[in-house]
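Is this the right way to post C-alpha cells for a design question? Let me know if I should format differently. Anyway, here goes:
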C-alpha cells in the first residue's frame, strides 16, 4: 500500500466541500466569544460530544445551529482561510467550494457579507496557498424554490464572483424537479450546475438532476448503483460523481467504510471522485479520506491516479488551468 507521504504528495482536486462544513469546534467557540454569542454548549468537549449522527437530518441540525457564530465578513474570511491552509497541507491543488447563502440570509446576515467574506479570500488562494479555487453557491432544497430564485437573481444583479450553483440540504421529499426554474436561470447566465442527488434520495432524483437540471456533475450519487440504466448513462457520458466516503459513513448511508461501494463504482467505470464534504464534522479532510481508502481497500497508485484524473477532468477549469494538473 501507498505510504502517508505518497498520499499527501498526490495532487488533489476537491469538488464537493461545504465551507460551513469546515467550521471546526475550536473556531466555533472563538467566533462565539468574538461576536458575543451564547452557545448551548458547556465547553469544547460538550460540543464535540454532539458529533454523532444517525442520518443526514441529524447532522444538518447541528451544522445549521453552529452557523450562528458566522456573523461578519471577517468571520467568513477566517473560516475560508482556515480551510485553504488545511487543504494546502492535504495536497489540494484546486478546490471548488460550496457556500449556502440561505443558511445565513435567513438569520439576518446580508447576502453580500457571506459571499464577499468567502470570495475575497478565495480570490487570493493561488497567491497565498498555491491552489486555484472557485465558488459555487448552493441552494437549500428544503426551503421554497421561490426563495432560491430570489437569491440567485440578487447574486446575478450584484455580479457575484460565482462559477456555478448547486443544490443541497435535506434530500428526501425535495426532488430536483422543484428547482427547474432556478437552474434554467443559472444556465441562461452561463453558470455551471451541480446538485446533490442519490445521497439519501432514490435514483429517480439523480435522473431528474441530469435531465431537468442538466447538471455537469452529481454530488454523492451513490444510490445510482440501484439503477443499472442510470449507471450505464453515467458511465457512457462519464458524468462525474463527487463521492464523500467519510460523510457516507458518518451519516449512516453505509455501515462502515469497508462496506462503501467506491471500489465497485470504479470497477463499473463510473467517473468517481473523492471529496471531504463537511470535514470538520465527518472526521477528516481530503488527505484523510484518501488515506482511509488506501488502508481499507488497498488502493494503489493506479487507482488513486484515476480518482485524481477524474476530478481534474470534472473541474470547472479552463484547459490552460487543467493541463498542469493532468
Ligand atoms: C450536506 Cl452531506 C450533505 N448533504 C446534503 N446537504 C448538505 N449540506 C452540507 N452537507
Ligand atoms: Zn455535500
Amino acid at each position: 500500500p501507498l505510504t502517508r507521504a505518497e498520499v499527501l504528495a498526490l495532487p488533489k482536486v476537491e469538488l464537493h466541500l461545504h465551507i460551513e462544513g469546515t467550521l471546526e469546534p475550536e473556531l466555533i467557540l472563538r467566533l462565539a466569544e468574538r461576536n458575543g454569542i451564547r452557545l448551548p454548549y458547556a465547553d469544547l468537549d460538550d460540543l464535540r460530544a454532539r458529533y454523532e449522527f444517525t442520518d443526514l437530518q441529524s447532522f444538518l441540525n447541528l451544522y445549521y445551529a453552529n452557523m450562528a457564530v458566522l456573523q461578519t465578513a471577517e468571520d467568513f474570511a477566517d473560516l475560508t482561510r482556515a480551510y485553504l491552509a488545511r487543504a494546502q497541507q492535504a495536497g489540494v491543488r484546486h478546490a471548488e467550494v460550496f457556500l449556502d447563502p440561505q443558511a445565513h440570509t435567513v438569520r439576518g446576515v446580508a447576502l453580500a457579507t457571506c459571499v464577499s467574506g468567502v470570495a475575497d479570500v478565495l480570490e487570493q488562494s493561488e497567491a497565498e496557498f498555491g491552489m486555484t479555487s472557485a465558488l459555487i453557491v448552493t441552494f437549500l432544497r428544503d426551503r421554497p424554490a421561490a426563495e432560491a430564485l430570489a437569491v440567485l437573481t440578487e447574486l446575478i444583479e450584484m455580479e457575484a464572483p460565482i462559477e456555478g450553483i448547486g443544490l443541497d440540504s435535506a434530500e428526501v421529499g425535495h426532488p430536483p424537479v422543484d428547482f427547474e426554474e432556478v437552474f434554467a436561470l443559472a444556465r441562461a447566465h452561463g453558470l455551471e450546475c451541480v446538485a446533490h442527488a442519490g445521497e439519501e434520495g432514490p435514483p429517480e432524483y439523480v435522473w431528474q438532476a441530469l435531465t431537468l437540471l442538466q447538471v455537469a456533475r452529481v454530488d454523492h450519487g451513490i444510490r445510482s448503483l440501484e439503477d443499472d440504466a442510470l449507471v450505464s448513462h453515467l458511465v457512457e457520458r462519464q458524468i462525474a460523481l463527487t463521492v464523500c466516503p467519510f460523510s457516507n459513513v458518518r451519516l449512516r448511508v453505509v455501515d462502515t467504510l469497508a462496506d462503501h461501494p467506491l471500489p465497485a463504482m470504479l470497477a463499473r467505470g463510473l467517473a468517481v471522485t473523492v471529496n471531504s464534504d463537511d470535514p470538520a464534522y465527518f472526521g477528516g479532510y481530503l488527505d484523510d479520506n484518501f488515506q482511509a481508502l488506501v488502508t481499507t481497500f488497498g488502493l494503489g497508485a493506479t487507482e488513486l491516479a484515476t480518482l485524481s484524473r477524474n476530478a481534474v477532468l470534472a473541474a470547472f477549469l479552463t484547459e490552460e488551468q487543467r493541463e498542469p494538473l493532468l
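Format looks fine. Someone answered above. Worth noting: The chain has a mean pLDDT of 98. The radius of gyration is 18 Å.
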